[in-house]
Amino acid sequence: MRSWVYYIQLRAYYQNGAFREEGALYVVAIPDEEKLKDVDMECYAKEYLPQQTAISSARAYAVGTDIAIKDISPYQLAGYREDMDLYVFKEGIGFEEGLSRVFKILLDHLAESGEIKMVEPVIDVGTPSADVMYACLKKALST
């Protein structure tokens, strides 16, 4: 297995007019036989993992965050690996389910700062598409 990392961010707008962003690293495992695609953006990366390959083949592996997660059970996490400084997911969780769990971790943390009026994912180069991000965020909001 190999891994691929996404930086996932949420921007929350609060009732008092303030806003805040929080992010986490989302690490997925991909089978060795999956081929990465070459890309002509050497300032960013020499290759990338196509989104459809991530959705169909990748499995949620871990979350890297500075957030101290006290109860890991709502997030489908198996535990914290101190040697890697990562919270590791339970086995068999697909890409989109894992992304929804990352959003849930971020949402729960952002909610500690006050009543959230609106939340949106931060879309950037290297993140999953807006459609995938919003679908996974919608799922996280419903749990």
Notable characteristics:
143 residues; alpha+beta; six-stranded antiparallel sheet; two-stranded antiparallel sheet; 8 strands; 26% helix; globular
Main structural class? alpha+beta
Computed CA radius of gyration, to the nearest angstrom: 15 Å
Helix share bin: 25-40%
What percentage of the residues does DSSP assign to strands (E)?
35-45%
Uncertain runs are none
The largest pleated sheet is described as: 6 strands, antiparallel
Oligomer: single chain
List the SSEs and their pairings.
Layout: E1 2-14, E2 19-30, E3 37-41, E4 45-48, H1 51-57, E5 59-64, E6 77-81, E7 86-89, H2 95-111, E8 116-121, H3 130-142
Antiparallel strand pairs: 1-2, 1-8, 2-5, 3-4, 5-7, 6-7
Helix pairs in contact: 2-3
Short description:
The chain is of the alpha+beta class. The chain has three helices and eight strands. The strands form two sheets. The protein has a six-stranded antiparallel beta sheet. It has a two-stranded antiparallel sheet with strand order 3-4.
Describe this structure as you would to a colleague.
The relative contact order is 0.23. The chain has 3 helices and 8 strands; from the N terminus they run ββββαβββαβα. By secondary structure, the protein is α+β, with helices and mostly antiparallel strands. It has helices spanning 51-57, 95-111, 130-142; strands at residues 2-14, 19-30, 37-41, 45-48, 59-64, 77-81, 86-89, 116-121. The strands form 2 sheets. Strands 6-7-5-2-1-8 form a 6-stranded antiparallel β-sheet. The two termini are 30 Å apart. β6 (77-81) and β7 (86-89) form a beta hairpin. It is globular and about 50 Å long. α2 crosses α3 (130-142).
